[in-house]
Specification:
The chain is an all-alpha fold. It is built from 15 helices and no strands.
Length: 392
């Protein structure tokens, strides 16, 4: 498994690769995990409360983190079971989406046009305020790039990877659009904009209490599957970054018994816990998309760089340049618009966190100031975890 940093390192060098791994995986990988945890929490409590916001804050966080720690234990000790369960959870998610689309269009067929009849009335045409909306949309589709990380394990990748990406994105886009249309058909726009467990509201209006419980339970199961998958992927990213010499070597340790990167998994757990305790779902989603897209843009520009610097390089598949060009333009738009919004200060903070990776690179990897403390701490941590967790 290789991270985006491996691609960036090949094109731009070690320093940009470190900054990429530092922000997107080492620091913010836990942020994406926290989003899954908070999404699970919202729908879990909708099984018992009409308004999940009524739940005591401490009880909410305690139950949410308990479920997270159970998932961590399974990811650490039963990886094969987790991989099998992900297939089940993904199937449940797909079936729930089909049910929502079917129920929504049946609702329309029997004459309920009052909600969708308003069309695009009230649409915000101020481009400056589209940033948060785009970040929310992008978050729904993040994951499309993960297939490239296991390219070495795919038969005939030059043929199959483009097919997998195009087919999965097309199916997902179609299902998501139909799902949103179904929500608009059934749920008044003001109710939808108020947030909360939208699928539960949909189930209640179309199928009554039973529908509410079934859809809420399906989303709970779905978010658990996403959480498990995200823990597996992000811990491997961190392990890979450490193996490439971009992160502390103690993160390369693997359990002798379970053959899982225990130290990386536990590190992800700590960061996830912090974000779960201090962050809100909407804020974390905006941050996750905003902080990831600069590196996607850099990778898109990298296509042009590689065509110029390595014109004769063997390319298993050659993408027409119009696609990376459009992608880069869209990425720049998504990156800039948050700075035109009233929440621009939050975006600026994340930029400063990103830039913090530059002095850390010279301090930790290049050892520019000849400090010995970081390397001694890393060595001590490696020996400690080897003994504590029976790793190698």
């Amino acid at each position: 498994t290789q991270s985006t940093g491996a691609y960036i390192r090949k094109i731009y060098g070690k320093q940009p690769a470190f900054v990429s791994v530092w922000l997107t995986h080492f620091l913010l990988g836990g942020l994406r995990l926290a989003i899954c945890v908070l999404g699970f929490s919202e729908y879990f409590w909708s099984l018992f409360y009409d308004d999940p916001a009524e739940v005591n804050w401490w009880l909410n966080k305690a139950v949410t983190l308990l479920i997270t720690f159970i998932v961590v234990a399974l990811v650490s000790c039963k990886p094969t079971l987790i991989l099998k369960s992900i297939v089940v959870f993904t199937t449940a998610k797909f079936l729930a989406t089909i049910v929502i689309v079917g129920a929504g269009f049946y609702y329309l067929a029997i004459g309920h046009t009052e909600n969708i009849a308003i069309g695009f009335t009230g649409t915000n045409t101020n481009v400056k305020e589209w940033g948060d909306a785009w970040n929310g949309v992008i978050w729904s589709y993040l994951g499309w790039e993960e297939i490239c990380c296991v390219a070495s394990e795919i038969k005939n990748p030059q043929r199959n990877i483009p097919i997998i990406v195009l087919a999965s994105i097309s199916i997902l886009t179609g299902l998501y659009i139909l799902t949103v249309i179904s929500f608009h058909i059934v749920i008044p726009l003001d109710d939808m904009m108020s947030g909360g467990a939208v699928a539960s509201k949909f189930g209640m209006l179309t199928m009554g209490e039973a529908g509410k419980l079934i859809l809420a339970l399906t989303v709970v199961v779905s978010t658990l599957g996403s959480l498990q998958c995200s823990f597996i992927v992000n811990s491997r990213y961190i392990h890979s970054g450490a193996a490439e010499g971009l992160l502390p070597s103690c993160l390369t340790l693997v359990s002798k018994r379970f053959r899982t990167p225990l130290v990386s998994i536990f590190y992800c757990t700590i960061i996830t816990t912090i974000f779960t305790l201090v962050g809100g779902l909407d804020d974390l989603i905006s941050s996750a998309s905003f902080t990831r897209f600069p590196f996607f843009v850099i990778c898109g520009v990298g296509v042009f760089v590689m065509r110029k610097t390595h014109p004769d390089l063997h390319r298993p598949y050659r993408v027409p340049l119009i696609f990376p060009f459009l992608f880069v333009c869209f990425g720049v738009f998504v990156f800039i618009t948050p700075f035109l919004h009233e929440t621009w200060l939050i975006s600026l903070v994340w930029i400063l966190v990103l830039l913090l990776g530059v002095p850390l690179y010279y301090l930790l990897l290049e050892n520019y100031f000849k400090f010995t403390l970081p390397s001694r701490l890393d060595k001590s941590a490696t020996e400690f975890f080897k003994r504590l967790l029976n790793c190698e």
